[in-house]
Prior knowledge:
By secondary structure, this protein is of the alpha/beta class. The chain is built from twelve helices and 14 strands. The chain has helices at residues 6-14, 33-42, 54-61, 69-81, 116-128, 145-156, 195-205, 218-248, 253-260, 284-294, 300-326, 354-364, and strands spanning 22-27, 47-50, 84-87, 96-101, 134-137, 166-169, 188-192, 212-214, 335-339, 368-372, 378-380, 386-388, 400-403, 421-423. Helix 8 runs parallel beside helix 11 (300-326) and helix 11 (300-326) packs across helix 12 (354-364). It is globular and about 75 Å long. It starts with 5 loop residues before the first helix and ends in a 12-residue tail after the last strand.
Amino acid sequence: MTMLSHTLREEQDAEPTGGFAFDVGVIGLGYVGLPTAIAYSTAGSKVLGLDVNQARLRTIRSGGADLLVRDQDRLTRSLESTHLTLDDDPERMSDCAAVIVCVPTPVDDYLTPDLHLLHAACAAVVRQAVAGQTILLTSTTYVGCTHDLLVAPLQARGFVVGRDLFVAFSAERIDPGNTDFEQEFVPRVVGGATPQCEEMAGRLLHRYATNVHRVGSLGAAEMTKLLENTFRAVNIALANEFADICGHLNIDVNDVIDAAATKPYGFMPFRPGPGVGGHCIPCDPHYLLWQLKRQRVSAPLIEQSMVEISQRPGRIVDQVRQSLSERGSALAGARVLVIGIAYKPDVADLRESPALEILSRLEADGAAVGYLDHNFPTVTLQSGSVLTGIVRPDVFCADLILIHTRHSGTDLSWISADQLLLDTRNPAVHRWAAA
């Protein structure tokens, strides 16, 4: 419930690491872990970045990681200055004064939490734990996970948590591809296993973060992240439903959203689309629903919102079929070109992207499908077939163009005024608009 001051950050920076070789060890160098390691190293900490995937380490060293330009420059400087060391040996965690766990927590094909990476990472942390360390879990998960995977096993090893070492939870708040909110200035929420754990974790976060908000418990911190992304999921489902309603009433839904957004209070604009993708919204609410189901607790609003989200790609395919039918064509045999297949603009990330299901469904229904996205030379569909990205969309001769993700700088000038086009941001409007 407090904000740590700049003075505390300066004091923490001045503190010795107690004989540890590294100030911070970051486990998992994906879309969360790598920017986190960069932020700490840029702030002056000596950082060990750990990832068991050697191919990922080679990609990072070669400059091929999907980062903002700003972060790529900072990564280069950190590696050159030796503030950041990359390794694949988990035993080196014992050399770190603080250990931050940043591994993925996806869901499986049945929307059940897939915790095997988190279990493995936390088990390794517990095995290598030494007195004096601060251990911070950032991976989104269910309420109680930090206790189950870190606190209890550390206690079983004989550590007194809050005295011998310190355990806390603080979920990441990184928005890939978004340059409007720099990581250092987005407040971090933290809860500890004990008040002293929370204090030590707050000091750790304040090494690079301007604001740290303390909530007083592990559970409150864990639930905060689930609320954030469940809130987004529910509102996206609502925006999609309004898009369908507006389509039936021949109204441009984005005109309605823009108008509603002029209200300076009580409204936050969410936009319709083909579904949701990435690491958070399609996954995080299912961690909450999974836990509630085990405890025989229902959450009907959240449940229905996630059903709507899961069905959205299929509805987009239905709209493609309807649009073609209105032109006197069948979906089977039609040539459909999808513009952008990443889950969001300006990221090279296909995780949970609705485009994968849309392309697969179109193919299964007999369409000849192609896609345009410079980030992905090829893509594998659910059938196992591999598509190669279209280089010359103007010669693809599409019967329908589907705008899924519009990256900045994507040239759409080749689309003619009479081209049949379906924009997933406003699927009821079947006309070409450059905006």
